[in-house]
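As noted in the main text, all predictions were made from sequence alone. Below is one such record, for Family 43 glycosylhydrolase.
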Amino acid sequence: MKKSWIYLSFLLAANLPSQAQRNAYLFTYFTGNDESVRFALSNDGYNFKALNNGQSVLDSDSISATGGVRDPHILRGTGDNKFYMVATDMHTAKNGWGPNTAIVLMRSTDLLDWRTHSIDIAKLYPQFAAADRVWAPQTIYDAAKKQYMVYWSMRLGAQDSDKIYYAYANKDFSALTTTPKVLFTPPAGTVCIDADIIPKDGKFHLFFKHAGGSKNGIKKAISNKLTEGYVFQDKTLEQTTDEVEGSGIFKLNNSNDYILMYDVYRNGRYEFARSSDLEHFSAINAAVTMDFKPRHGTVMPITDKEASALAAKWLTPQQVILSAGGAGLKPINSYLDSAANTLHLQLRPGSDVSKFKPTFGKYPGASITSVGADKYTVAIKGRKPVTFIVKATETHNAALEGFYADPDVLYAEKTGKYYIYPTSDGFDNWSGTYFKVFSSDNLVNWKDEGKILQLGTDVTWANKNAWAPCIIEKKVNGAYKYYYYFTAAQKIGVAVADHPTGPFKDSGKPLIDKRPEGIKGGQEIDPDVFMDPATGKSYLYWGNGYMAVAELQEDMISLVPGSTKIITPDRTFREGTCVFVRNGKYYFTWSENDTRDPDYRVRYGIADSPTGKIQVPANNMVLNKDAAVGLYGTGHHSILQIPGKDEWYIVYHRFNYPKGINMGRAAGYNREVCIDKMTFGKDGTIITVTPTHKGIDPLSK
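Prediction:
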């Protein structure tokens, strides 16, 4: 019997690729905008490239009961030359967060074609009929039972706590053959989800998201046995202070080290940390690159042959050429003209276009070769080579690199510099929780000055939806003060600092937390602050669906009682008020339509006082899209006058170029800040601004 077991073990090992043969990695994940299985490849476990142009590799409608799948986990089979994948059968965009009770089992012989089965736990097992959360399944091979074990987190109704359960799958991986049992129960009064087990040195390390204890985060339990005896370790392992979930851990090829990754779900990030002992982790985020935005996924080492097969099916020459990088490149603004096989790259201000030489990502199964001045040929095994032209241009828009929106601009007398205070964007459903500031001497070269306010810590009365700030500089008793008004949880707060970059101290409560009298719809968002040069009085404007104004008291952190007034100009008003004065006339500007609409744009009216009445000109368009150059969603702005000059600029956001227009409603969460010049006619009318890629020239000092 012993000899037979040794021989069987030898056969099992012989069917597995050795560590030396595993030179690539497959990342399975989903995204917040489309709950489906997606694949990405990497040569080194650090730099990942999406397959299939970042789209799904499996049809969620055909493999799931709900039409959506989340949290995919992939596993190489033991001794059977197969691959196993499991996922949550869940479509939150359609059905919300529950109840959901099913998981999807998938099996493949080549990673390309998959046999799938949806398993409804509540229907299959009457004793679990009360289940309302069946989440994040994973698979591991139980060598003792010679079966694949599926484990997941489950809650049996609102009165229960989330625990980790397990059951065994049949040989075909099409059904569960045992009644689920509890694998791990967290300490009393706490919950755990998103379990991930990895064996090391004869022990099983169970990673999971723990909540309700001394500190939420990724923690683990350890056992000598796969199915019992796990000892909880109350130590968070993630290398961030932000909330996380969806941990996944994998061993690096030809190394003793492991990488732990997790979903920083409230801030739209994915982070990575490295460890040699599974106890002490160091952040490696700066070394990791991805051309996609994953949610809860897993990574599996694969061979070059497997990677080449995946590339042959789902990698395109266009994806390879779009991996272009290089010094000075704006990475999110590359545009490929597929008809002309021409890649257009945008470089940061000050870049020397004549000296720019692109670099390209390395994909398994693909190569790229320079074949002349600005020409490159991409070859993928099994596909016809394609040659591309690569052109680079220096541009000043987007002005800030990355995803930001709702910019407010300030010239600070104290420092002689310009500052932009935006919404931090790139988060689904505008779910950012912090504010940043950027500084410049010339309106072209911007320095990231970092976070100035974090909801939930710096602001104790709100922890979500950090939107649309504005700021004003005032002298108080001979010293400069900065009053920063911001939206948080659809309320408006105010924080104060002695310097444009902070530190800012929140007042401790919202300044505006309810609708003005008579208003029955809309939101209390998008503040704008304005000081009337004629009277020295300061005013705050706000509103979505209505435009409100109130006078600020001398302390700038409270409103003059009874001064609130509704001054909505016309039916084109949506949000984003900005007020300025020129030649004794008060200009009111605002955004029309929804920020997710390609026709989001800016209009204006004129009044004789800072509280209206607003007269709307017949042709009152300030800023609109330019479809001819691919610029859409141009709105929510602020206006800057250069001190002492009749020189004006509009600072606004747009959809990301070039991807935004193809993102649907998600374009409204992926916006970029731009600056263009604004001019006036002789009669004081605003001449409609055409948005540009070029942007403005640097201001001379």
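The chain has a mean pLDDT of 94. The first helix runs from residue 2 to 14. These features were considered when defining construct boundaries for the mutagenesis experiments described in Section 2.9.
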